[in-house]
């Protein structure tokens, strides 16, 4: 998990840099839409810091109080990030309403937009790298941070277009309107992130396509057994937990049953990467005649 921690630390540095750049864009223009964009970057900094702490915590080995490890700490980070996103959206809506009641002409719009475009480009480049590496490392915290950054990129692009439109047309209510639309986009992003993160905390099963691959591997590698049933799966950070009952002939020796289990575990770990697999061996009298059929 050292690579994940380095990525999380890099994400924090990028978030601070982008916040400074967006703050400069708002200071130059006084645009409430650019203020909303900068306010979201404050959330990015807090979320990146939480992700760094969570990644470091999740990398700790199992102990007496946490025999399954600390991987779920990353889901708490993602939940916190979702909550912060929603709070930021509500603050932006408040500012947008105030600006709608008392609109003003943005100062130095071209300079502010140029600075904002720079911040958006940095965010887009880092989000692309973070999402790719986060998926490779199977880190919920990094993937959540990347998705939030992509949402920020889309929002920033819309804000740049809107502030440019205000400067060209002189229609002042476009500025608070863009800020409000930014807030709505952020709210949707926050609720989606909360939903996915809570799913991880609630031990949701793995994705249907992955479950199908697991069932196929068990079926292919369990030659000599009779059936596998009560298959259960879940994710916890980078780990995938798989457990099931394997029914074997009543007269099969323990060593033979163990060889089948080793073969299944090897195939699953090769497919899943970091995996914790529990197989409960049962005699054929325990067969339920459903579940995973053995080829």
Write structural notes for this entry.
This protein has helices spanning 2-29, 32-58, 73-101, 109-137, 140-169, 174-201, 208-221, 254-272; strands at 227-236, 239-248, 275-283, 292-293. The protein folds into 2 domains: 2-201, Alpha-lytic protease prodomain-like; 208-293, Cation efflux protein, cytoplasmic domain (Alpha-Beta Plaits, 2-Layer Sandwich), CATH 3.30.70. The model has no long low-confidence stretch (mean pLDDT 80). It has 295 residues and is of the alpha+beta class. A hairpin with a 2-residue loop joins strand 1 (227-236) and strand 2 (239-248). The chain is 69% helix and 11% strand. The protein has a 4-stranded mixed beta sheet, covered by helices on one side.
